[in-house]
Design goal:
This protein is an alpha+beta fold and 567 residues long. Helix content is 28%, strand content 29%. The structure holds ligand 9G3. Ligand 9G3 is lined by residues 85, 89, 92-93, 108-109, 140, 159, 202, 409, 439-441.
Length: 567
């Protein structure tokens, strides 16, 4: 491709609406343009990257036994009523109607549609296992579309669904996908980590996320430095460090006047009690019932763990006025002693004694509070977020934290959808059984953005070779010099003939402008042709991820490029 012919409108300025690096660079380098909030056009350079990602995904899905199909984007409401998800997802679905006033949604995912499809055409265990996938645009009306391609309202997803006769079959399909996903991220040349994930929301059992590691990542990952335990912080199991268990004698419960002191920090200052000897009381409404969740003073509540513990469908922070009415005090003065609602305490709190908390009376706290003597817990559970330094739940190691971008997610669904959609087959004994399902997603457009988040410098993108829009860029310093132009053309032809994807910057621009653009769009290998080196039969080569360039004999160019690209 000649740069003079390529549509890649680069921008000098950093677009003001772009909050993260991948969004800024993909806009600036002429890969994407916004059409409306969370909806983007992919320009030629982006299309090339996406196609490469898709092809790697496609090859690995096929290798694992997947068969590609294309399902409609338009889905009728009735299917979603059957699964109960039309009302569950509500506003997050893009809805539309036809001339007969029938209702539809633009597909946010395809469990309902594919379950219906397979149920209609697979009647016997002989047709199983079946793994079907597609690569297609998905639509979700996010409240706050943000971060460019990271959280778009229209995005490209690969979604595969597995249908098996039983749980053992599902285990096999799940393992195949797990392995295929690892191969995909290896081949994409991205640093990634597989982590245990929460699957509660879609009613599954086991679930793993594939995280591309990047400092800007939205997801927090904990991992063990000794064993291979890794989990999304939402899911990470917290054990109680036995070292914190207090051996003190119980002291008498004491009520203290604490005028105006509301926060944990206020009490650290006012009473000199460290956060680790205080507890915090958080009030939630769980399916309409007011409950209290209690954590050590320095800990963060994990709402997903609380929701799972309560087995609640709807969980939100309680209204302060309601709390005041029922408990007798506002948020800053609550505590479990005399609390008239169910109390759920974190595991760690169960190991503490003589701690301080609010007295359910504004401007008063209790000190030397003890579980069982002073209050009763309805349940003890793991409710807090893991933090760096926690003990690993699997071994003697300690947990560390890193950030990542969720680019893949695999779930064991079981019969959640086949039961709802009444999707069955006849087993080898002629018995009717529900399909046992799994679903497996890859955010293709998000993977492109994640690749940028992980691979850039102050000058622009640094594409990993397997997904670069072009592998090589040839930059003649001055296209008006006949010898440079001829050599550029010659190398362009030779490299192209060798199956290498080359962009020739044949524009009549200053060398500085061309170097800047080459860096910005992130082509992995640059070949510069200048008159001085040309007299010695050499060109200059530079790897985008290294500082220094090096000279290569004209005759050795093909071989050198080959070695770098196909090493
Ligand atoms: C919806 C809307 C948003 C959604 C969903 C449904 C997330 C929904 C979870 C999944 C699970 C898997 C297939 C590929 C792998 C992931 N957001 N999820 O189901 F209606 Cl509006 O999509 N789907």
């Amino acid at each position: 491709m000649k740069a003079s012919q390529l549509f890649y409108p680069t921008l000098r300025e950093v677009p003001s609406e772009a909050e993260i690096v991948s969004h800024q660079l993909l806009l600036r380098a002429g890969f994407i343009r916004k059409n409306t909030a969370g909806v983007y056009t992919y320009l030629p350079l982006a299309r090339r990257v996406l196609r490469k990602i898709e092809n790697i995904v496609r090859e690995e899905m096929d290798k694992a036994g997947g068969q590609e199909i294309v399902m409609p984007i338009i889905q009728p409401r009735e299917l979603w009523d059957k699964s109960g998800r039309w009302s569950l997802y509500g506003e997050e679905m893009f809805k539309l109607g036809d001339r007969h006033k029938r209702e539809f949604a633009l597909g946010p995912t395809h469990e309902e549609l594919i379950t219906t499809l397979v149920n209609a055409d697979v009647h016997s265990y002989k047709g199983l296992p079946l793994l079907l996938y597609q690569i297609q645009n998905k639509y979700r009306d996010e409240i706050r579309p943000r971060f460019g391609l990271m959280r778009g309202r229209e995005f490209i997803m690969k979604d595969l669904y597995s249908f098996d006769v039983d749980d053992a079959g599902l285990d096999v399909s799940y393992q195949k996908m797990h392995k295929a996903y690892q191969q995909i991220y290896e081949r994409l040349n991205l640093k990634y980590r597989v982590v245990q994930a929460d699957s509660g929301a879609i009613g599954g059992k086991e679930s793993h996320e594939f995280m591309v590691l990047a400092a800007s990542g939205e997801s927090e990952i904990v991992y063990c430095t000794l064993c291979d335990y890794a989990a999304n912080v939402e899911k990470a199991v917290c054990s109680v460090d036995q070292a914190v268990r207090t051996e003190e004698e119980s002291r008498p419960l004491t009520k203290v006047h604490t005028p105006g002191q509301k926060t944990i920090n206020d009490i650290v200052e006012f009473l000199g009690i460290p956060k680790t000897k205080q507890i915090k009381t958080l009030m939630y409404s769980a399916d309409g019932e007011l409950i209290a969740a209690i954590l050590r003073g320095d800990r963060e509540l994990n709402e997903i763990k609380l929701k799972n513990t309560l087995q609640a469908n709807e969980l939100f922070m309680a209204d302060e006025a309601v709390v005041k009415e029922i408990c007798g005090a506002g948020f800053g003065s609550l505590g479990p002693v005399g609390m008239p609602v169910r109390i759920y305490i974190d595991l760690e709190v169960a190991a503490m004694n003589n701690f301080a908390c609010g007295a359910n009376e504004d401007d008063y706290h209790f000190t030397n509070v003890n579980l069982d003597r002073d209050f009763t817990a309805y349940a003890v559970a793991d409710l807090r977020n893991a933090v760096a330094g926690d003990k690993c739940p699997c071994c003697e190691g300690n947990l560390q934290m890193i950030r990542g971008i969720e680019v893949g997610h695999i779930f064991k669904l079981g019969t959640r959808y086949s039961q709802a959609m009444q999707a069955t087959f006849l087993d080898d004994k002629g018995q009717e059984q529900f399909f046992v399902m799994g679903c497996y997603g890859i955010g293709v457009s998000r993977t492109m953005a994640a690749a940028v988040e992980q691979n850039y410098d102050e000058n622009g993108i640094i594409w990993p070779l397997p997904i670069a829009p072009f592998q090589v860029i040839i930059v003649p310093v001055n296209i008006n010099q006949a010898d440079q132009k001829a050599m550029a053309e010659q190398l362009y032809q030779q490299l192209t003939a060798n199956g290498i994807e080359v962009l020739l910057d044949d524009r009549d621009e200053r060398a500085g402008v061309k170097f800047k653009d080459a860096d910005l769009i992130g082509i992995p290998l640059r070949i510069t042709i200048g008159s001085k080196t040309l007299q010695e039969n050499k060109v200059e080569m530079k790897k985008r991820w290294e500082k220094e360039s090096f000279l290569v004999d004209i005759d050795a160019v093909i071989g050198t490029v080959h070695d770098i690209i196909f090493k």
